[in-house]
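Appendix C. Worked example: biotin--[biotin carboxyl-carrier protein] ligase
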Amino acid sequence: MASDGRRRISLGDFRHEALSETSSTNSECLARARAGDGGNLWVTAERQTGGRGRRGRLWVSERGNLYASLLLIDPAPMERLGSLPLAIAVAVHQAIRRVLPLGAEPLEVKWPNDILIGRKKTCGILVEGEGLPDGRYALIVGIGINISVMPDNPLYPVTCLRQQGSAASPEELFAHLFAATAEVLEIWDEGRGIGEITALWRAIACGIGEKITVNLPDRSISGQFAGINDNGLLMLDTGAGRIMPIAAGDVFFG
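Step 2, the predicted output written as structure tokens:
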């Protein structure tokens, strides 16, 4: 524990298991949690046979990209977990920044945690949680980064690091992700550092002040992206002075 009350996190607090192939690194982490793993475990795979994105969408998972999941056990009180996706997005942004050449297109975060290069998606993050029978809570952060392979029929414009001039391998990129995540989780401080995290997120955010459409499970709402509040909710200005906070949805620009 540091003098400021923040629990120090080091690279030595985390473990890493590299697999050649698995159905899903998220599923692998969840299985480890159910079997009693203590957390702070990274699982990577060269290929996934059943990778998935948000809302159960298929995540193309051929060799050449980075597929990584982090298992955390009781990472924060439930009321402070909502800011964790923002923290992870900051860490992934930092990792990708370290392998992009100077001439690459702008690297930004689309709310809440898609990573864009030149407004094209290069990374998706899926956060899943489950209460365990022994009373612990398992939270799994799945990260898929396009390095050399992209989906054929994407919902959004996509790119990969190769198209942006990066020669980084999945192993090199993961080394940066491993380090950046430890650094950012220390700042996040079990949710107590949300002010610092939201400030870092806003500095790399895409589209604040622009017109957006947010697709919710039952409807679509358009307005101006007014940023995020201190709890990480998207603030949508729908006009007439009304600001609507949104906790989850798919954002489209223009």
